[in-house]
Amino acid sequence: MSITARAGDKSDRMRHIIENVRSNEALYKDIEVVETKSYHANASAQMPSKALTGDVTKSRYVMQQGKLYSRMEEKGQTAGNSGIDRVSLLGFDGQYTRTRGGDTANVHEGKMNTCKIFQPHTWLLSHAHLCFPLSLYLDGDKAIATHPLAGAYANITVRCSFARSEEIDGLRCCKLVCEMCAKKSPPEPYAVRYVWLAEDRNYLPIKAIGFQFGYSKDIPLESASASDFREISPGIWLPFKRSLVVNDEFQAKKNQKTVVSNTEEELVEKAELDPRYGIELFRDIPVSDAPVVYDVKDGKIIRTRITQNPHPAATHWAWYIPIVVLVLIALGIGVRFFKKRNA
């Protein structure tokens, strides 16, 4: 879907790019996606023991007529050889948002604002941490500030502009320049991200490169690309592969070297528009058996329910530890007494 741009200066062109992005974002509001993300850290890099060295996350997202469902299963390894194995669930049935992660569950009255949704137009820009639509990001900080998940972007100035038209992988693209500036006068950019949107692929990002000037103006800290575009419905496309390379910021600053810090690859396994699931998918998140359940309203905990001990087995055996110690001490005294008596 494309809106014809009027002739004019770059601001006019940028405005129509934003309108095209916004209109295409609406095409994906009801969608189901299953994907797998693989993360690998540079094996030669020094890192703290809790840092991830490898990680695989399989996610399922369902957005259906305002309702939400997400399931994320993560398995990984840390530099200290600790294993990671966790599952998180979220469901919004139109009335309540229920979440579950480990021993804790939350029941929110109403719809909880969350980043755990699939947004095709921000999928490539994972390192930018956009929990809001790409159209708002391109529109700048004033538009971003209207979103409840603006986060750190509410405290900076974002300026995006059209640079030029280019061709990538045979696709007609518009190259954009997005500067991040501290909120001061005059605003001075401390970071820049170049984004290429594929005009004939629903204005989806196909390439992105980011620089942090505090580390280097020449070595990018992130470089991402999208590929394997498939038509999931007539005129509606989706990339089924995303690749990200993150460079070591300290090597870039100290030694002016490009050294890979970590890489990500994300593959879409399933993508279908207009899912049709029953209410139970969004409602039946397992919260009743969670040891601790928080009831939340307007962002505040209004009730805490402790249904059982989070680690009953551990606590059960803990009661026997002092008894076992006393028995061992008694046996030791008895053995010494027996040896003395028979000496």
Describe the protein in words.
There is one protein chain. By secondary structure, the chain is an alpha+beta fold. It folds into 2 domains: 10-153 and 198-306, no CATH class; 312-341. The protein has 7 helices and 15 strands. It has helices at residues 10-25, 134-139, 141-144, 249-254, 279-283, 312-318, 320-341; strands at residues 31-41, 52-64, 67-78, 83-92, 96-101, 104-109, 156-168, 171-182, 189-198, 204-212, 222-233, 236-247, 260-273, 292-297, 300-306. The protein has a 15-stranded mixed beta sheet with strand order 7-8-9-10-11-12-13-1-2-3-4-5-6-14-15. A hairpin with a 2-residue loop joins strand 2 (52-64) and strand 3 (67-78). The N and C termini lie far apart (99 Å). Mean pLDDT is 88; it is low at 2-10, 312-327 and 337-343.
DSSP helix fraction:
10-25%
Number of domains: 2
Q: H/E element string?
A: HEEEEEEHHEEEEEEHEHEEHH
Walk across the major sheet and give the strand order.
Answer: 7-8-9-10-11-12-13-1-2-3-4-5-6-14-15
Residues in β-strands, percent: 35-45%
| SS content category | alpha+beta
Figure out the total of helices.
7
Mean pLDDT: 88
Which parts are unreliable, with pLDDT below 50 for 5 consecutive residues or more?
2-10, 312-327, 337-343
